[in-house]
Design goal:
single chain; alpha+beta
Length: 174
């Protein structure tokens, strides 16, 4: 087997995207059954958790509350070519969730991604649509406290820009 094929298979084993075949060479079969592979995969997962908990806390906390954290991070590891550079992981994770089927997850991740960009000096302005009033949701997530009551439904948007005193404003779309 050539080196490139072997490396692709090893990466697939780490990302859980490669299924072993009977005709795989002995090295690949040995690695696939190794407890060391499982330990390495666990370490990769825990490292992602550590980085994402600190760099995209709002989205992380929301996923944790919805009991979707492990599933979502595992899918991110499996589906994305993640840079080893910590600074690029949060934007990639948030971008991967920006079109999530759950509108609240999508809105929170879009909001947090825009806020990250603004904090890094991006001169742009971003608009994030919401199907619930975002103030209480964002306050709850930022302070890691439960929502006191369900957020009112409706058409809202947050505008994120370095031009605002707190980098964003909430507006009712109606």
């Amino acid at each position: 087997m050539d080196l490139a094929s072997q490396q692709r298979k090893l990466l697939g084993l780490f990302k859980s995207t490669y299924q072993i075949h009977a005709d795989d060479d002995e090295y690949i079969q040995t690695v696939a059954q190794s407890k060391h592979l499982q330990e390495a995969k666990t370490n990769i997962f825990l490292w992602r958790v550590y980085v994402l908990e600190r760099t995209c806390a709002l989205t992380f906390r929301l996923l944790k509350r919805l009991n979707l954290l492990e599933k979502t991070i595992s899918a991110f590891i499996m589906e994305c070519n993640i840079s080893p550079f910590r600074e690029t992981q949060a934007p990639a994770f948030l971008e991967s969730l920006s079109n999530h089927d759950d509108r609240l997850i999508a809105s929170v991740s879009q909001f947090e991604l825009a806020l990250l960009k603004i904090k890094q000096g991006d001169p742009g302005s971003y608009v994030v649509p919401w199907t619930v009033e975002p103030s209480a949701v964002l306050y709850s997530l930022a302070n890691d406290i439960p929502l006191k009551e369900k957020a009112p439904e409706g058409a809202y948007k947050t505008v994120i820009s370095g031009d605002f005193p707190f980098d964003f404003v909430v507006r009712n779309v109606d």
